[in-house]
Amino acid sequence: MVSSSSLLNCAVCENQLVQPITLSCGFTVCLACLPSKSLLEGYSFVCPVAECTRESHLFGPDLFLDYTIEQVIKEDFINITTMDDSVYNSATTALQCSIGNHLLEHPVTNHCGHTFCKVCLLQYKILNDSCNKCQKRLPSYQFIQKQTPNLLLNNLINIFNGIPLFKNIELARANQISNVTISFSKLNQFSYKNIPIYLSDFAVLPSQKLRIPIYTEQSRLLFQKALIICKEYQCLCLGIVNKDKTNKKGRFGTMVKVTAIEQRANDMLVSVVGMDRFKVVGVNKEAEEFIAADLDMQFESYQDLGNITTISQHWTEHKILSPPASPKCDKVAIASAISPLSSPPHSDGSPKPIYEFLPSSSPIKLSNAIYNFISELAHSTPSISFCSTVEGLLGPVWLDSVQGLHGPLPAAENPVAMCWWAAVVLPVSNSDRYHLLETISLEERLSIILSWINDLKSQWGNCRRTAISSASKVGL
Questions:
Q1: Cα dihedral sign, 270-276-277-283
Q2: How far apart are CA 238 and CA 275, in angstroms?
Q3: How far apart, in whole angstroms, are the C-alpha atoms of residue 118 and residue 104?
Q4: Which residues does residue 54 pair with via DSSP β-bridges, in sequence order?
Q5: Which residues contact 101 (CB under 8 A, 6 or more apart)?
Q6: Is the pLDDT of residue 9 over 80?
Q7: How far is the CA of 274 from the CAs of 154, 194, 223, 240, in angstroms?
């Protein structure tokens, strides 16, 4: 049915696999094609596969045989042309995820040699630290999240999915680990019923990174039950809405991706990043810390996103970046308390919003205005300000700090990413951020951010005049 002459070949010697080992880069090789054990015990590992592009690998010296591929080779069902119970049982047994009890999807292989669906393993890892087949220690959550699929098994499953003879294998999909799934594609379903939603004390924005502490076993179990699967990006997600004393219906929130989990004794620290917004259209159940709600996803316009979307990456992860070059300084210069700020110049009178000066209020022009403001701050002389509300808000140290926390400054030509990045780093109130979250038009959102910037400039000007006036009164 499928020729094993090429499918089951070693990625190094290109011969039929013998004692297959699947590396964390996704390639499968013969045990004899690995570097010597003494090299595996060292601090560096040169992958024997020429096509490998991974910078790091999870490796031994104790690397174990790939159990699933061994079964495929042993049973040899891929060369059988007639389907019967024996062949069917062999295929479903060999290609089954023992966590979700269904046919493997996006299979990842641990260093212990056992293979699971990626999202099944991610969810299993939250409450378990050992492989359910051999009890060997599992990799970290963040390593699994970045794990490359087992390329051989992935190709094999894709081939089976296109062969009518094996369509019955779909019956093996018995128990999904979660029946709650979501899509971040506008072309797919965007209305969802009875979705578990976390309630937070502040508004979470798209592309925002944050950590959620979980202290009790009950909270950990609740967290696991609230997880939502996104198959497009092979990740686990949570819906988060800002708490409000009134009815939650009509509130806007953000679907976040779980990127890492850090276990600390009985506590757990969950790292997430904001993806897309949603609106609560109905509340079915309400408790102190969560609700079960019907929601509509609020996707960014394809026109606003331009050409940055790809099949494998969400727009928040797309790398079109052009941060301003920070000037190099060996020492941090300290400006005197009455020195003029090196921020954008202040003009007397009540300044108009920045966007009113633009010849056209297109998102790209508005994004460029925000980019130029951030760039000016990044090139300002580092100083200790006389005003505590803006102290440390100038210079390359500030830019380096916020980029370390929130990711690189997006390119000005990426107005969607610029909108949310600026909203996270600028010193504004939670109510201001929520107002931005519920504003649908990108152009309006960018205009709101420019009005924040205009207010900040005005505040800096007032602080400067107050400082100069105070200094003159004491004869400085």
A1: negative
A2: 10
A3: 9
A4: none
A5: 174, 175
A6: yes
A7: 29, 21, 17, 9
Q: Which residue has the tokens 């969560």?
A: 290
Q: What is the 3-state secondary structure (H, E, C) of the chain?
A: CCCHHHHCECCCCCCECCCEEECCCCCEEEHHHCCCHHHHCCCCCCCCCCCCCCCCCCCCCCCCCCHHHHHHHHHCHHHCCCCCHHHHHHHHHHCEECCCCEECCCEEECCCCCEEEHHHHHHHHHHCCECCCCCCECCCHHHHHHCCCCHHHHHHHHHHHCCHHHHHHHHHCCCCCCCCECCCCCCCCCEEEEEEEEEECCCCCCCCEEEEEECCHHHHHHHHHCCEEECCCCEEEEEEEECCCCCCCCCEEEEEEEEEEEEECCEEEEEEEEEEEEEEEEEEEECCCEEEEEEEEECCCHHHHCCCCCCCCCHHHCCCECCCCCCCCCCCCCCCCCCCCCCCCCCCCCCCCHHHHCCCCCHHHHHHHHHHHHHHHHCCCCCCCCCCCCCCCCCHHHHHHHHHHHCCCECCCCHHHHHHHHHHHCCCCHHHHHHHHCCCCHHHHHHHHHHHHHHHHHHHHHHHHHHHHHHHHCCC
In tens, the pLDDT along 209-226 reads 999 998 888 888 888 888
Distance CA 242, CA 299 (A): 19
The residue-averaged pLDDT of 354-362 equals 53
DSSP annotation of 328 reads P
Q: Which pair of tokens denotes residue 144?
A: 């699994």
Q: Which residue ranges form the domains of the chain, and what is each CATH number?
A: 4-172 (3.30.40.10), 191-301 (2.30.130.40), 319-473 (no CATH)
β-pairing, 267-286 vs 252-264, is antiparallel
Cross-strand pairs, 269 = 213, 262
Judge whether 406 and 421 are in contact, CB under 8 Å.
Answer: yes
Q: What is the pTM of this model?
A: 0.81
* Of the candidates 423, 424, 430, the residue with the CA atom closest to the CA atom of residue 448: 423
Give the span between the Cα atoms of 298 and 441, in whole angstroms: 11
Q: At what angle do helices 415-425 and 363-378 cross, to 10 degrees?
A: 40
- Give the span between the Cα atoms of 418 and 370, in whole angstroms: 8
Give 277-308 pLDDT, tens digit per residue: 999 999 999 887 889 999 999 998 888 887 66
Q: Which of 462, 384, 369 is nearest to 422 (CA)?
A: 369
Contact 412, 322 (CB under 8 A): yes
